[in-house]
Amino acid sequence: MAFLQNRSISLVDMYIDNSEPSENVGQIHFSLEYDFQNTTLILRIIQGKELPAKDLSGTSDPYVRVTLLPDKKHRLETKIKRRTLNPRWNETFYFEGFPIQKLQSRVLHLHVFDYDRFSRDDSIGEVFLPLCQVDLSEKPSFWKALKPPAKDKCGELLTSLCYHPSNSVLTLTLLKARNLKAKDINGKSDPYVKVWLQFGDKRIEKRKTAVFKCTLNPVFNDSFSFNVPWEKIRECSLDVQVMDFDNIGRNELIGRILLAGKNGSGATETKHWQDMITKPRQTIVQWHRLKPE
């Protein structure tokens, strides 16, 4: 991920997700090319395979919704393929007036749905592809595993870690959260994040963000720095708790993550922590699924 090094965190970073899908919801085959003369991105959605059955008949009626994030208003859709788990779309979409530099900050979002005539269409799975990762001159073709939609889950938190051994500073940046669980009657939450620096089971230092009202997708953009000597970096952990603020009752936990060194709180060392240690002075960005406790 050389392109990530030494540059500010952007929309593109927020959609880089190298984790394995939590369950198998099929794959999608598509290709990309770029018409340099007409500054046009050409997307061909070819087929899907091994999609899950969403209908009582044991099949689905799949179609693909296409967006170039961050623009969510202009979306394109393939035709619906009836009663199949291995649809062949073979459809081509043209995004005109996109200089190559502009595409570098765009993320291709392919979202497969099951069409339902009488109720809301079911989400089957989705793929996010930052276009700065793609060499469009090669006319690449992809098979990508679909990621299942977030359901009955607490949501996800985008964080970055950076450690400077020279001055013993550990920096945690809380960038944003998505699809947080609603805790209030209005179907929203009032989220904020509480962070504890721990050594073993002992809590040393606490920090927290501001409260964001009535949202399930808050953008925090808040950084906290802690003084941790190099020889102690594997012994500490960060207990990161996303909370729902309540004016009257007790604040409720929405979900939490533990970012831990090998010996921190008896936890196994997280990959995010490993990457931070092996790449000192670099900002390592990663999405984390929140756990209920």
From TrEMBL:
The keyword Repeat applies. Keywords: Repeat. The keyword Transferase does not apply. One of its GO terms (biological process) is vesicle fusion. InterPro entries: C2_dom, C2_domain_sf, C2A_Synaptotagmin-7, C2B_Synaptotagmin-7, Synaptotagmin. GO terms for cellular component: axon; exocytic vesicle; plasma membrane; presynapse. Residues 24-144, 153-288 form the C2 domain. It holds the Pfam family C2. CDD domains: C2A_Synaptotagmin-7 (cd08386), C2B_Synaptotagmin-7 (cd08405). GO terms for molecular function: calcium ion binding; calcium-dependent phospholipid binding; clathrin binding; phosphatidylserine binding; SNARE binding. It comes from the Eukaryota. This is C2 domain-containing protein. It comes from Euphydryas editha (Edith's checkerspot).
